[in-house]
Amino acid sequence: MKIDVLSLFPSMFHGIFGESILKKASEKQAVTYNVVNFREYADNKHGQVDDYPYGGGAGMVLKPQPIFDAVESLKSENETKPRVVLMCPQGERYTQAKAEELAKEEHLIFICGHYEGYDERIRSHVVTDEISIGDYVLTGGELGAMVVIDSVVRLLPGVLGNEDSPILDSFSSGLLEHPHYTRPAEFRGMKVPAELISGNHRLIEEWREKESLRRTFERRPDLLEKRALSDKQRQWIEEWEKSR
């Protein structure tokens, strides 16, 4: 996968691309990163990429020309049809399903703004996807892009040591992930559930299924509203509801 990022602050990405899983993914040649300061594409000697909004109002608006030229240049260099992702609070709420969708692409371009807003012609003629990571406002799109990139890259084949890890993550199955335990089996009087140390794989899988459902029921019941449940799962929920 090729990931291009358009940002006025490219140095913000040096740390995240050079550490942990994102670094390993690059070393394994599963992904290549390219961060571009789109100020370099400004068509004026001052490198200005923003201007006052028509009709008045607070703040500055990102001009279309630098973004159009930067995206067109990246497309011509790679001869691909990339997904062009605009990070903005008005976008689609980001989910694991969206991460899995983007992970199937060969080329992603992220646009990170840093002003009051974008000229609408960027949205309507350049962008394929608008993404929001939550109902709050950040000073720029860089942090949001980092979140999306991290969640996408870890899904690429061969990036994680255990191929089952992304499949079993919270939200991948539609439920929150079950609790985890490691050694020692007892710590300060707190014991690991007996099922997990029983050696009985059927009991272990049933415990994980039940605890995954319980955690979702307690913390994110909205995820269960449209989910098809088995008779056993419905029975568990009925028991939890009675014990409230």
From TrEMBL:
InterPro entries listed in its UniProt record: Alpha/beta_knot_MTases, tRNA_m1G_MeTrfase_C_sf, tRNA_m1G_MeTrfase_TrmD, tRNA_m1G_MTases_N, tRNA_MeTrfase_TRMD/TRM10
Catalytic activity: guanosine(37) in tRNA + S-adenosyl-L-methionine = N(1)-methylguanosine(37) in tRNA + S-adenosyl-L-homocysteine + H(+)
UniProt subcellular location: Cytoplasm
List of residues binding S-adenosyl-L-methionine: 113, 133-138
Keyword 4Fe-4S included in the entry's annotation: no
Pfam families given in the database record: tRNA_m1G_MT (PF01746)
GO molecular function: tRNA (guanine(37)-N1)-methyltransferase activity
Keyword Transferase in annotation: yes
Enzyme class: transferase
Ranges of residues in domain tRNA methyltransferase TRMD/TRM10-type: 1-226
Keywords carried by this UniProt record: Cytoplasm, Methyltransferase, S-adenosyl-L-methionine, Transferase, tRNA processing
Chief subcellular location: cytoplasm
Reported function: Specifically methylates guanosine-37 in various tRNAs.
Family: Belongs to the RNA methyltransferase TrmD family.
Entries under HAMAP family matching the protein: TrmD (MF_00605)
Protein's recorded name: tRNA (guanine-N(1)-)-methyltransferase
Protein's organism: Rossellomorea oryzaecorticis
Gene name linked to the record: trmD
